[in-house]
Amino acid sequence: MNTPQETLQSIARSDPEYRSYLAGMLPVLEDVDQPLPDGLAEDVLALMQRTQPELVKQAESAPPEPDRFAIDPTVTIFSLAAIVFLLRSHIQYKDGHWTFEHKPIADDMLGKVLDALKGVLGIK
């Protein structure tokens, strides 16, 4: 069974726009020196399950893919890239700054996820 990080990466990879997005975002995300908070991938996956359950179901049932881009065992950068890509309607990097749009969901899961990402990205 896939880990939450592998499932999120699988969902991101299934989008044809992901490869070009990844190429543009990697230089920006490589400067991030914070590890992903415990539970962030699980929270994003829960959010995806609420908003796109069929996509998550397909990704979870797919066999794990070896990530040829992985640079360390935690795959932090690529998990972060997948998360930012999947939440791109709420997060933007423009003119050297991150902006976060907060559209609350019933229990404010999105707010929790965005707050965690702000910590990873060093935003107050």
- Rg computed from alpha carbons, rounded to a whole number of angstroms: 14 Å
Order of helices and strands: HHHHHEEH
Distance N terminus to C terminus? 36 Å
Overall spatial form: globular
Q: Order of strands in the sheet with the most strands?
A: 1-2
What is the helix tally? Answer: 6
Low-confidence stretches: none
Secondary-structure map with pairings?
Blueprint (H helix, E strand, L loop, with lengths): L3 H10 L4 H12 L10 H12 L1 H9 L14 H11 L4 E4 L2 E4 L8 H12 L4
Antiparallel strand pairs: 1-2
Helix pairs in contact: 1-3, 1-4, 1-5, 2-5, 3-4, 3-6
What does this structure look like?
The protein has about 120 residues and is mainly alpha-helical. The protein has one domain. It has helices at about 5-15, 20-30, 40-50, 55-60, 75-85, 110-120; strands at about 90-95, 95-100. The protein has a two-stranded antiparallel ribbon with strand order 1-2. Strand 1 (about 90-95) and strand 2 (about 95-100) form a beta hairpin. The protein is globular and about 35 Å long.
